[in-house]
Amino acid sequence: MCGIMGYAGDKEAADIIIDGLENLEYRGYDSAGLAVNDNGDIKTAKTVGSPSGLRPTASGIKGRVGIGHTRWATHGAASLENAHPHASVSGMFSVVHNGIIENYEELRSGLEAQGVVFRSETDTEVIAHLLEKHYKGDLKGAVREVLPLLSGSYALGILCEDYPDVIVCAKLSSPLFAGTVGECGYLASDVSVLSGRCTRIYRLNDGEIGFLKAGSFKVFDSDGCRLRKTEIKIRSLSMDADRAGYRHYMLKEIYEQPAAVRRTLAGIISGEHRIKPGFLKMSDREIKGINKVRFVACGSAYHVGLVGAYVTERLFKRSSEACIASEFRYMHPCMDESTLVVIISQSGETADTLAAMRLAQSEGVKVVSIVNVESSTIAMESDKLIMTRADREIAVATTKAYSAQLAAVYALVIYLAERSGELDKREAARLLRGLMEIPDKQERILSSGFDYSSVTDRLISSGYVCFIGRGLDYCSALEASLKLKEVSYIRCEAYAAGELKHGTISLVDKNSLIIALGCCSGLRAKTLANVKETQARGAGVIYITGGDDDDAYENVIRIPRCEDIFYPLLEIIPMQLSAYHTALKLGREIDKPRNLAKSVTVE
Ligand code: F6R
Fold first, then answer.
1. 520 a catalytic residue
2. For the domain 3-227, what is the CATH superfamily, name and number?
3. Structure confidence at residue 550 as a pLDDT band (50, 70, 90)
4. Beta carbon of 398 within 6 Å of any ligand 1 atom
5. Nearest-CA residue for atom 7 of ligand 1
6. Quick one: CATH architecture of 249-436?
7. For residues 221 and 208, is the Cβ–Cβ distance under 8 A?
8. What is the CATH number of domain 453-586?
9. Substitution site in 398, 478, 482 for ligand 1 pocket (most atoms within 8 Å of beta carbon)
10. Is 448 helix (H, G, I), strand (E, B) or coil?
């Protein structure tokens, strides 16, 4: 989504801001802009496309205090007019904003009735105009009056011509961080941008108003009283954003999966294949009292939740389901003290997932969060937290964080099953041993030297692509389909294999390609029967299997055998690589696919 970068210090601001915006590019963008306060004269530069496009115009902009923004369009197309920062009528205020102002139409009509002429279609512009209307020479006072008028979500960076050395910042449900080092102050919506630049980093909380100056950061509550902020420690994110010789971050991250799974499991499981003491700190009574488990997440993390639900039913023997967070939060979900909600998020900032977590917490149910970014809002607000140790994921399409989430979910379910008495200790240890062997098997797939060119040719030339599978293979089919469409833009879908003939098989003809995931041994024969139905209608087939019963297929991808429940950690790898190589052949922007953002901070 959008990104904010600000600087107040003793150096020229524009270059520093553009560098920071370039670090935020991985989040997705379609336009960018900056504003610099040059001793009371705010100057602005904007561009459509990458923030690097700001360099030619910004080179003439002098000043040591400024704000910048990468925009992911929500209200209005990607254009210079809609790019941030947005200025008030007289130019006294300049504003960058992440989030959505939900009541902007009403605010805009009110301002237009007072004669304000808007220059953009954005929701953000109302904030600049409101600040100007409420400003009577007291910057803090104006900000305190305007914030309560805004509903929705925001992270804001504000410049005011009368205060040439200050960036004002505020947030509601959208992350914002400030950092200082020596005589410099930085503002950013993503803490990773600050970690290499600052010695002290602070997280702004909802309702707080921050004043960032060269080397100082003062924070006030909504009543205007000064707050004492504690610095946050950033430990879990490696800032190594180097492609290490790989052509794309996505490929590097695919290859980092064994390490991500190993690190994640090492944080949870001891060398004796036991869950480490102190994990989650739930009493046996609490665990035995759980009647229902709901995994709540978005996108790929939701697919992890689906795996979690299947495995929960099988091992923990509790009713379980995966819920899409944007649905869950509005479905009036039935929850009580016997419900366990498992929140899954790489970024820890996904707006719908965060809202779902807060909803569950407000109803007093038990919540466990599985998060990759330790400094994220979900991690900070979680009572029971499992960290995935995938390290920083740069490519927009998730791969290594997905695998790390799967590993954490397996460990969690085995833990719940053992502590509740549904799984005996020996069986739990056997499963944990099997789980810990998975990274070696992932390495075997990654080093197999399989040539994906015939798979990519088939994917590109087919008129209809459908991934099928049953049970856990179906969960992987959903993720495989998402990966392919994200990075290659090929239209495809995923179906539970047994569901195909309830309608969708009408699409199957000789131009179709069916990618069948048939790893789970108990269901393989049934999936193969469904494959035969598609072959009978002329479809081509690519078959992914952990078995040997497949010689009939032209394109077979074999993966190492493992415990049935762990196949999702293996079978997804050839699917990720197929998606990657297809996108490469099609010349797509693999690490930053069109329209996508790494962290979806608006609902
Ligand atoms: C797909 C992808 C997304 C995310 C989803 C949730 O490759 O990355 O579908 O999985 O946006 O993001 P997090 O896990 O950050 O909550």
1. no
2. Aminohydrolase, N-terminal nucleophile (Ntn) domain (3.60.20.10)
3. low
4. yes
5. 397
6. 3-Layer(aba) Sandwich (3.40)
7. yes
8. 3.40.50.10490
9. 398
10. coil
With a 6 Å cutoff on the Cβ, whether 373 touches ligand 1 is: no
Domains 3-227 and 249-436 share a fold: no
pLDDT at 156 exceeding the cut of 70: yes
Which residue among the candidates 2, 198, 298, 519 is catalytic per the annotation? Answer: 2
Query: Are 127 and 111 in contact, with CB atoms under 8 Å apart?
Result: no
- For ligand 1, say whether the CB of 369 is within 6 Å of any of its atoms: no
**323 catalytic per annotation:** no
pLDDT at 134 over 60: yes
Structure tokens, 68:
């910048």
Task: Give the distance (Å) from ligand 1 centre to CA of residue 276.
Answer: 28
Beta bridge partners of 297: 324
Does residue 239 have a pLDDT over 50?
no
Pocket test for ligand 1, best of 350, 352, 381, 392 (most atoms within 8 A of CB): 350
Residue 236 binned pLDDT confidence (cut-offs 50, 70, 90): very low
Q: Does the beta carbon of 599 lie inside 6 Å of ligand 1? A: yes
CA distances to 253, 341, 399 from 243, in Å? 9, 36, 15
Q: Look up residue 270 and give its two tokens.
A: 């001891």
Instruction: State residue 228's pLDDT score.
Output: 94
Contact (Cβ atoms closer than 8 angstroms) between residue 489 and residue 586:
yes
Residue 345: partners with Cβ closer than 8 Å, 6 or more residues away: 297, 298, 301, 353, 354, 369, 370, 371, 372, 376, 378
Closest protein CA for atom 10 of ligand 1 = 300
- When pLDDT is averaged across residues 131-145 and rounded to a whole number, the result is 97
Q: What is the mean pLDDT of residues 166-175?
A: 94
540-545/555-558 β-pairing: parallel
pTM, rounded to two decimals: 0.88
Domain spans of the chain, in order of start: 3-227, 249-436, 453-586
DSSP letters for 277-315: TTSTT--HHHHHT--EEEEEE-HHHHHHHHHHHHHIIII
SS3 418: helix
Measured in Å, residue 486 CA sits from the centre of ligand 1 at 11
Tell whether the model's pLDDT for residue 182 goes beyond 80.
Answer: yes
Cβ–ligand 1 distance for 301 under 6 Å, the answer yes
Neighbours of 318 (CB within 10 A): 21
Dihedral sign, CA of 110, 80, 28, 490?
Answer: positive
Q: Is the CB of 351 under 6 A from ligand 1?
A: no
Q: How far apart are CA 297 and CA 55, in angstroms?
A: 38
Quickly count: other Cβ atoms within 10 Å of residue 182's Cβ. 11
d(CA 538, CA 462): 12
- Sign of the C-alpha dihedral computed for residues 469, 307, 348 and 356 taken in this order: positive
Residue 271: both structure tokens together: 């060398």
pLDDT band at 241 (very low <50, low <70, confident <90, very high): low
Give the position, in ligand 1's atom list, of the atom nearest the Cα of 405.
14
